[in-house]
Amino acid sequence: MTSGKNISASVRQRLLNRAHHDDRPFNELLQYYAMERFLYRLSRSAHADRFVLKGALMLRVWRSPQFRPTMDIDMLGRTNREDALILRQVRDIMMMDVGMDGLSFDTDSLRTERITEDAEYEGIRVRFLGSLGTARINMQIDIGFGDIVHPGPEMAEMPTMLDFPAPRLLCYSRESAIAEKFEAMVSLGALNSRMKDFYDIWLLSRQFDFIGKNLAEAMRLTFKQRDTVLPGDIEAFSRDFAEVKQTQWMAFRKRLEQEHVPVSFQEVTRALAIFLMPIAASISKQSETPETWTASGPWS
Description:
Elements: H1 4-22, H2 26-43, E1 51-54, H3 57-61, E2 73-77, H4 83-94, E3 103-115, E4 123-132, E5 135-145, E6 154-157, E7 168-171, H5 174-188, H6 195-207, E8 210-211, H7 212-225, H8 239-256, H9 265-283, E9 292-293
Parallel strand pairs: 2-5
Antiparallel strand pairs: 1-2, 3-4, 4-5, 6-7, 8-9
Helix pairs in contact: 5-6, 5-7, 6-9, 7-9
Pfam families: AbiEii
Keywords: Transferase
GO molecular function, one term: transferase activity
């Protein structure tokens, strides 16, 4: 019989081999593995329908050829937002018996805090520790509440690092992901330092097709829910904004280690304007809703 210790050692070695093969940091793959296995526990739990996966991990679910590393899990909570209830639900998930995958989660380390300052949304942050053998993993889940997903959440499978069963869970739509990032650009204005939002929308617009009416409805619902007015001119798409943020963009791009990403931030914001402004104009009744976006554009 294989012991838990042997399983942990085997998993660690396989992750090391994968890190070497992919030329990625081992800790990045270890973090992703821990998040993946937590989400598998969620998918097998009684709480699976109370949380919708969103954020950077969705680039994996959507099988994007490129993605950005992330250290945490973002979710939409469809449950009461009381800290005590969230703690109980996360503890239940951590304790799920799903067979040996080398990981354990420390329920005694569970902590929550309110997400308020400099956040994309108000919500609850859950922190706890995971372990793979002697390796300790800091886990973080950011849970938001109240947002509307259009088209509605759908079940999807998350790719796995190794040959363990894949999480299958409720996931965000690309349309609402884009709408929320665009709303953040509008509401933050010149204060916006969220380069990842620009990257994500740029990437999604290059890799996926979109139906205009679906993206328009997602955008309309998001701006209404967050009580944000959609202006005619978007500061984030201006030349001055691009020039001011160029240094931040270069630092973000360097961390990505993706040579295909434009060096010029203005090139990115121009691409986003071509993608988003026809939809924004249709919501403001200034033009008809465009029909179809074929990956990389334009609208037709």
